[in-house]
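step=encode ok
step=design start
structure_in=
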């Protein structure tokens, strides 16, 4: 049975469909043709050199603001000292005025005394001289009080301004520090990408390596150890080869312990955070660096599972890996 001829509506749709297909194919080809190529090592190094200049400028600005901040703190402290001194003078002057007012109130008016019938002239003149002297001292003290009051007000304003300047300088230093730290992390990430994995097969598995060199570890483990040393501020030792065969990777030259404290002491919160950062970075780069597993804080992370799992209690800070991350490679 012959098929029905296409209706006029269908005949009109065919060219439109062909046009849509052509447009979609063209867009796909165009997108593929214009896709930005991944930067090669040369381009990454060029970017790094440029970012290093930006970082140097940021660090210079950060340091200048740190110096300004220190100066602002000194100025603010000096203003606070002047303010305290002015406050003391102010209170002393007020007390002096109060005492003079009280004394003046207690003394009789010399004009009335001089013309009273039974007054002794010598006593009257003596009292008048005393009151005249008191009046002069009162005038001087009031004038000093007014100056101290003005100095106090100026000190209050100066101290308030210095506090504002200090707050602004602190914020500027913090902002520059964050910018510099972000750029440092970006540079570190690009440096990580420049590191070429060693002895990797086409299927993604890792070729076994023999230990070498005076440190008795494999090139892969040495690469990971050196990268961690470059990236993190390690205050304590890194222990790699260990001859005791306890079923681990140390005798094979495929493991290193990155110590956070010494003498089996529990690390401080800051030291423990460093261990967290090292572990997180190693896990993030595990596929690229040939990491097999990480042990830290009585837990183990294995590349096959991609998750932390608890470990049994081995009876001590070091045995339970609280004072160091243990890193093993293939």
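sequence_out=
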């Amino acid at each position: 049975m012959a098929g029905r001829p296409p209706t006029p509506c269908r005949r009109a749709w065919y060219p439109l469909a062909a046009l849509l297909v052509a447009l979609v194919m063209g867009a796909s080809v165009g997108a593929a043709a214009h896709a930005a190529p991944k930067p090669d090592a040369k381009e990454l190094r060029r970017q790094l050199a440029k970012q290093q200049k930006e970082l140097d400028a940021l660090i210079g600005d950060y340091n200048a603001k740190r110096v300004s901040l220190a100066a602002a703190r000194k100025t603010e402290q000096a203003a606070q000292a002047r303010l305290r001194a002015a406050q003391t003078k102010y209170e002393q002057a007020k007390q002096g005025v109060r005492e003079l007012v009280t004394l003046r109130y207690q003394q009789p008016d010399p004009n009335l005394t001089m013309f009273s019938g039974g007054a002794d002239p010598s006593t009257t003149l003596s009292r008048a001289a005393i009151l005249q002297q008191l009046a002069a001292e009162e005038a001087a003290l009031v004038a000093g009080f007014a100056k101290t009051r003005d100095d106090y007000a100026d000190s209050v304003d100066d101290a308030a301004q210095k506090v504002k300047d200090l707050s602004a300088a602190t914020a500027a230093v913090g902002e520059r520090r964050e910018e510099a730290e972000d750029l440092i992390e970006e540079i570190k990430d690009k440096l990580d990408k420049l590191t070429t994995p060693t002895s990797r097969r086409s299927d993604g598995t890792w070729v076994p390596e023999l230990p070498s060199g005076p440190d008795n570890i494999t090139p892969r483990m040495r690469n990971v150890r050196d990268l961690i040393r470059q990236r993190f501020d390690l205050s304590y030792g890194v222990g790699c080869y260990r001859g005791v065969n306890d079923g681990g990777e140390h005798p094979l030259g495929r493991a290193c312990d990155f110590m956070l404290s010494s003498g089996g002491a529990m690390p401080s919160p800051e030291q423990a955070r460093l261990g967290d950062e090292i572990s997180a970075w190693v896990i993030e780069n595990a596929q690229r660096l040939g990491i097999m597993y990480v042990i830290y804080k009585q837990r183990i992370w294995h590349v096959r599972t991609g998750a932390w799992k608890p470990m049994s209690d081995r009876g001590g800070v070091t045995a339970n890996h609280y004072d160091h991350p243990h890193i093993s490679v293939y």
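step=design ok
step=annotate ok -> Residues 121-194 form the longest helix (74 residues).
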